[in-house]
Amino acid sequence: MLRALVTVCLFGLIVGSFLNVVIARLPERRSLWHPGSACPGCGAAIAWYDNLPLLSFALLRGRCRACALPISWRYPVVARFVVAAALLAALIAITAIDLQLQIIPNAITLPGIVAGLLANLGTGAVPWLDALIGVLVGGGVFVAIILGYALLFREEGMGLGDAKLGAMLGAFLGWKALLFSLFVAVIVGGVLAIVLLATGLRGRKDPIPFGPFLALGGATGLFWGEKVVAWYLSGFGR
Predict the structure, then answer these.
(1) What sign for the dihedral angle of Cα 147, 148, 153, 158?
(2) Which of 74, 210, 70, 58 has the alpha carbon at shortest distance from 142?
(3) How far apart are CA 59 and CA 124, in angstroms?
């Protein structure tokens, strides 16, 4: 599973890099293969170590090594799209597995935490400090809930898989969008749990996987999280 996730992430980065080549050359009817990549400003050939998806962009701080010309915004935007697609694919897999087996695989969440931090470091979509805080908040909230539930009811509630998934979402989304994601997950999950209990479809001790609700919240936070938080902090648009 870990090998598959790493393969998917690497494949996604390669696809994103190639898409940028297509976008730059296809309209001009230039070859997609020859010559190699070069700076559009000074024409200097781009060495392989400066052409690594996301990583090189971050190390070069978005500028050409030879002439310091800013690298087009298109490159990180395409990379962000690839990162978002990878996150959504992981959330779909987690949803299906949790519904079927009531587990959230470490093979997805643990590499996902690292991938989210590195992706934000490379694209700048979320400040690295916000992403790191997101990991601590996303994991810490659920660890606190797990410990609190165990102390109050002397039994297990949520599993640590939810905490690791929360940390992964924090790594990708940052703490601000994560808060919105958690809000959506708790509201939707809480309402559905009440309905299931009230209708007798589930008993109090019957497991109700929370991973799918976290995944839904994560997808919602990916698209609207930062905007909703900014709107809220601005005083509801006033």
Answers:
(1) negative
(2) 210
(3) 12
